[in-house]
Amino acid sequence: MKKIKTLCSAILVAIISIFTGNAQELENSTLWKITGNGLEQPSYLFGTIHITCDATLDDDVKKALDETTQVVLELDMDSGDMQTKMMQNMYMKDGQTLKDLVSEEDYKAIDQMFKKHMGMSVEMMQNMKPFFLTAALYPNLIDCPMQSFEEELLKVAKKQGEDIKGLETIEDQLNVFDKIPYKEQAKDLVRSAKDDLAYDKATFSKMMDTYKKEDITEMIDMMNDENYSSIAEYQDILLDNRNKNWIPKIGEFAKEQPTFFGVGAGHLAGKNGVIKLLRKEGYTVEAVK
């Protein structure tokens, strides 16, 4: 049971960051100020990376948190029933299992990878949506204790006695992965097993370096990677539609009170990224240097 709870926590941290496409050049910054279009006070938009070795908040981010009165993340991660709802929605429909999606040889490779890195057989989890199996391995991609910017933002919000809210529900987010064919999701898992996470580790290392540079455009370019086919081929479902759904909610929150928004950095740039979509609605969105 303890391993299952650890697995759920790893998946939760990992799945809230999916990356967008259609890059558009923007300034190198992960913090953006939102004004105009009827806002009485500024709000802020911060792009996070959800698994990292160092989630220390910079001074400009701390200042933005001080100037706002509520924190809104992709999900309300302070919700007490988050884990229960996640458990209810992470499984494939119609009784499908991983063995239905991959060859016997590929299944054995995946099982070996899980035994090595997770300390358990994939047999225990083979009815989970393949993307979540992949996500469960994310903490193994870094050679350090895992940290999360979301956890740091939650700490600040609680310390300041502020409300913590979400742009979407855990059900919304998990059900996205019923719209992508399970076999497509399983392809990425097979690829990871065949080189024992070597490609994934190299990619994630580069991503962390790119995040340190605050180059949100390069982060998008990296994620148009055919080796991650379930992301590259279904960005409209994974990203564009979600970004568009967030815009009216961001406007509502910001008009109620000055708000600090924290979403995956990959959601910021691109023609369907949050920055351009907010500008299209009449907001002024400026990089905070």
From TrEMBL:
Residue ranges crossing the lipid bilayer per the database entry: none
Alphabetical list of CDD domains matching this protein: Tiki
InterPro entries on file: TraB/PrgY/GumN_fam, YbaP-like
Pfam family, one: TraB_PrgY_gumN
Record key words, sorted: Lipoprotein, Signal
Signal peptide positions (record): 1-23
Segments forming a coiled coil: none
Name of the protein: Lipoprotein
Species for this entry: Winogradskyella haliclonae
